[in-house]
Amino acid sequence: MHSRIAALLALVISSTALSAEPEAYDPLKVADGTPVSETFEIKDAKRDRIIPVRVYLPETKQAAPVILFSHGLGGSRDNNPYLGNHWAKRGYVVVFVQHAGSDEAVWKEVAAGERFEKLKSAASLESFLSRVKDVPVVIDALTAWNGDEKNALHGRMDLEHIGMSGHSFGAITTEAMAGETLASQSFLDKRLDAAVMMSPSPPTLGDPATAFASIKMPCLLMTGTQDDSPIGNTTAADRLKIFPNLKNAPAWQVVFDKAVHMSFGDRDLKGQSTLGSRYHPPILALTTAFWDAELKGDKQALEWLNGKGAKGVLTAEDQWQANERATTAP
Questions:
Q1: How confident is the model at residue 266 (pLDDT cuts 50, 70, 90)?
Q2: DSSP 3-state assignment of 70?
């Protein structure tokens, strides 16, 4: 009798497991707790340059995909912890890169009335070139650390799957590293697999169609209807010139209604916290689904991006687009 009951219970349990619906994909679902973050300094001997980084680590000790983040003008490796913490909780090693010459040192020790001019002068070609040279050096350092048994990051990174993101000047940096052609020159780093640009910008000279035709990796663009830049004279309308010219890359774009330039950060122009902003949850949801789809090959994440999931985290006034390559990707 007991054996018959046990057999019936096993049958019921088995049938229930087979008929159970798979758990719905949710890019905002994370475990409790705050990820560990550590700071490091990378020495580029060729340029006699120090590159500070902050690394957010997931709980898993297994090798995890890597996301690089490039800050905007006047920022630092300590900006946007809301991104670093969430992405790390989702199983990524997140590396925030600080670019000397266009970081917070430009304005921190300067009188308030002089800060704008200092920041404006730092938004230069020299700063751009320094930034695009920083990124390969950082990837080289991560590769060395990953193979060094004495390093805290030993074996923690899956460097076959690397994404890059950035805001404003960081988005320009990301565009270049993703393969944008500038004055017939490419800064593409082929070790990158996907890119997220927050407040992207078209080139100041040349045709955007030509500049962005050379980008082939998947891209997610994020901007707002009021995303005007206080430096550089880039308007919200200018930021819409990138998406239609990504002809050779799977691409998605969100335009948040009434979002301003600083909506993607954790501070506004007056230094006030923007945490709790209505834009942060959809930023986290869309970027996480994009990373999961492109760096982890998660089919549910891709279906979420191209289905009702992405639209479900947006308001009716927000605009969401995907190009043909994005919606026909295998």
A1: confident
A2: strand
Residues, the chain: 330
Residue 21: the pLDDT is 58
Residue 191 neighbours by CB under 8 Å, 6+ apart: 139, 159, 162
Tokens standing for residue 234: 């880039």
Side chain identity at residue 207, one-letter code = D
Strand 181-182 relative to strand 219-226, pairing: unpaired
- The strand pairing partners of 75, in sequence order, are 103
Q: Long-range pairs for 304-309 at CB < 8 Å and ≥24 separation?
A: 304/25, 304/27, 305/252, 309/25, 309/27
CATH of segment(s) 29-327: 3.40.50.1820
The reported pTM is 0.91
Residues 285-314: pLDDT tens digits? 999 999 999 999 999 999 999 999 999 999
Torsion sign across C-alpha atoms 233, 236, 241, 246: positive
Q: Judge whether residue 62 has pLDDT over 90.
A: yes
Q: Can you tell me the distance from the alpha carbon of 295 to that of 68, in angstroms, rounded to the nearest whole number?
A: 13
User: Domain residues of the chain, as ranges?
Assistant: 29-327
